[in-house]
């Protein structure tokens, strides 16, 4: 009996979704600013006349827009060896200058130059790592992204146990370790999944809802940060850990019932609870910071996973679309922080009314963003960008046709998404991989579609679809 239970447990573990160790190297640099902050690095905010805008924030936004241009023209970026190696050198050297300027005798020039180099190196490595994730299937993208946060947490906690000189030495070596793992990760990718140098970058027209959603939510979270503080604190850390643990556990152990729609649906409650706490408990912001950080991490993880999955489906470099998502987030969260700080500096209200105004404004903006990027769009439009203008036009027509077809036959949002992929000739296994659901779940939805249309095969389904399109 004992060995039967052990064998049954072993069989279950064999079915657990896993990802190769090199893909977790993203965690070494994923939250670099938090790592430096945990080591006691001083901020350069006071060196700029704009409140809440630091040197690294300004440089990060500026360099991300440079990356967009570079990715558009030169992607895939991982093939530019000197460029990637230079980013690791910039991150290492910049971190060293920042640590020297903070640990020993504060030197503003060291801190400023270091933060510029850190921002340039960090943004480049961040985007190149996401380019790697765009070469693996959506299930493993989600797993690697969530697991990398756990790796990041382990690195963060471990480094705090070292003395300042030892920590500084290790921090300067970590970017090169990350590069080594990045190279190892690309070596495991099949040649057919690696983006080619001559691959066309996607049209952004089908992805405008995703970008607008990221902009609106980032602005709302920026406003909240102006009150709860964007400084890495325990509530913020545990809040960011929560959605990553949900993704990690869901993907590994509950793949048959878990999909990314779960993350989309839990983001709204997390944010609403956070803003309500900001409204009702102005004397203790820890709970608000926890829930707002969890909501922020949920939507950002979802946005990057969608972008990488889109690249995987269409076989283009993820660097371009991920750089756009990252730049949009970085820019609008800073705009939101400045807007929230402006309310504080004007000081028209007492603190309670100020927090209430910010909470109401943030909630309204977040609610509006849900209208812009609906769950229906999540299932249908995130991967719609074609590899050519003609392909994009044909897909747009097919989506419109499926939308009308779905409305007439009362298909759900999920069924509509599956019907679209069926119309494109995808198998059940391919649909499961692209929509991040189990094959059995696909079969269940296909059966429901057949029942609603009174058909019994793919051929009959296509015939009904063509008749409706002709009408």
From TrEMBL:
- Keyword Cytoplasm recorded: no
Matches recorded under InterPro entries: Sig_transdc_resp-reg_C-effctor, Tscrpt_reg_LuxR_C, WH-like_DNA-bd_sf
This protein's superkingdom? Bacteria
The transmembrane segments are: 21-41, 53-71, 83-104, 110-130, 142-159, 165-186, 207-224, 236-255, 262-281, 287-306, 318-335, 355-373
Q: Has UniProt tagged this entry with the keyword Membrane?
A: yes
The UniProt keywords, alphabetically, are: DNA-binding, Membrane, Transcription, Transcription regulation, Transmembrane, Transmembrane helix
Q: Where is the HTH luxR-type domain?
A: 404-469
The UniProt entry, under PANTHER family, shows:
DNA-BINDING TRANSCRIPTIONAL ACTIVATOR DEVR_DOSR
What name does the UniProt record give this protein? HTH luxR-type domain-containing protein
């Amino acid at each position: 009996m004992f060995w039967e239970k052990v064998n049954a447990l072993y069989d279950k573990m064999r079915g657990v979704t896993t990802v190769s160790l090199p893909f977790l190297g993203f965690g070494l640099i994923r939250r670099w600013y938090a790592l430096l902050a945990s080591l006691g690095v001083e901020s350069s905010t006071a060196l700029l006349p704009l409140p809440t805008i630091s040197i690294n924030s300004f440089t990060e936004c500026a360099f991300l827009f440079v990356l967009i241009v570079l990715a558009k023209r030169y992607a895939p970026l991982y093939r530019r060896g000197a460029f990637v190696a230079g980013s690791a050198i910039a991150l290492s050297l910049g971190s060293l200058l920042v640590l020297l300027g903070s640990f020993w005798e504060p030197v503003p020039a060291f801190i400023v130059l270091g933060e510029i180099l850190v921002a340039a190196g960090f943004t480049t490595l961040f985007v190149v790592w996401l380019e790697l994730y765009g070469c693996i299937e959506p299930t493993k993208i989600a797993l690697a992204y969530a697991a990398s946060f756990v790796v990041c947490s382990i690195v963060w906690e471990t480094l705090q146990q070292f003395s300042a000189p030892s920590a500084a030495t290790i921090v300067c070596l970590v970017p090169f370790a990350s590069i080594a793992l990045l190279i190892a990760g690309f070596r495991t990718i099949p040649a057919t999944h690696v983006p080619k140098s001559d691959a066309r970058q996607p049209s952004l027209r089908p992805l405008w809802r995703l970008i607008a959603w990221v902009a609106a939510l980032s602005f709302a979270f920026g406003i909240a940060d102006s009150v709860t503080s964007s400084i890495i604190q325990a509530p913020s850390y545990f809040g960011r850990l929560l959605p990553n643990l949900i993704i990690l556990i869901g993907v590994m152990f509950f793949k048959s019932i878990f999909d990314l729609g779960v993350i989309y649906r839990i983001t709204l409650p997390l944010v609403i609870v956070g803003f309500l706490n900001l409204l009702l408990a102005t004397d203790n912001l820890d709970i608000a910071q926890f829930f707002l950080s969890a909501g922020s991490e949920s939507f950002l993880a979802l946005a990057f996973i969608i972008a990488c999955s889109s690249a995987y489906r269409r076989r283009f470099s993820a660097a371009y679309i991920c750089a756009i998502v990252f730049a949009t987030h970085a820019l609008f969260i800073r705009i939101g922080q400045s807007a929230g700080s402006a309310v504080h500096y004007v000081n028209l209200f007492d603190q309670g009314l100020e927090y209430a105004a910010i909470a109401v404004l943030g909630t309204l903006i977040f609610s509006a963003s849900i209208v812009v990027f609906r769950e229906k769009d999540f299932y249908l439009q995130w991967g719609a960008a074609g590899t050519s203008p003609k392909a994009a036009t044909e897909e747009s027509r097919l989506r419109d046709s499926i939308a009308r077809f779905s409305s007439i036959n009362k298909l759900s949002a999920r069924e509509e998404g599956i019907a679209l992929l069926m119309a494109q000739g995808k198998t059940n296994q391919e649909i499961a991989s692209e929509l991040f659901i189990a094959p059995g779940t696909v079969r269940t939805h296909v059966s429901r579609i057949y029942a609603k249309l009174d058909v019994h095969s793919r051929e009959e389904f296509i015939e009904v679809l063509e008749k409706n399109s002709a009408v």
